[in-house]
Amino acid sequence: MVRRPVAWIVAIVLFVEALGVAALNWFLGIVVDRQQMSLAGLDPDAMSVGSKAGGIVFGLYFALCGVVALLVALRDRAPAGFGRILLISVAVVHALLGAFAWGLVGPGAFAFMVVVLGLVVLLLMTYDRLEGPSGQSPEPPPGKDPAPALPPAAPSPS
Questions:
Q1: CB 90 within 8 A of CB 62
Q2: Which residues does 25 contact at the CB level (< 8 Å), separation at least 6?
Q3: In angstroms, rounded to a whole number, what is the distance separating the alpha carbons of residues 26 and 53?
Q4: What's this model's pTM, rounded to 2 decimal places?
Q5: Residue 156, CB-side half-sphere exposure with 13 Å CA sphere
Q6: What is the DSSP letter of 4?
Q7: How many Cα atoms sit within 13 Å of 88 on the Cβ side?
């Protein structure tokens, strides 16, 4: 049973985005290479290789963030340590990309970036709310009585 599907959705979106970013940058590298374009005197081969390398790096980054979200979904618990830092960083990246996308691409790309940003923040906030400071769920599992909050009182001497 899937209790919180947001982690699954974030994982799928980040994997699709990883493939899309890598494919787009690879395509742009091919276009620059075939047309022998140059920007401010830069070598077209260097621009092509840089675009392809950037696509691979960002694709792997988004895929790694997708793996973290997938692990959160499979384990059904909050990300910790490096995984949490990765998810926070991918949220910041989407906020910055959204700000740039509005001016360069248009409101559609901005909306997509904001939706992904919202999903990642929702993932982080959902699991934080349901876990206490010690990482334990505050509610007992269904069908079990909660443990007593205080130990039994000691018998008084008579």
A1: yes
A2: 51, 52, 54, 55, 56, 58, 59
A3: 8
A4: 0.74
A5: 1
A6: -
A7: 9
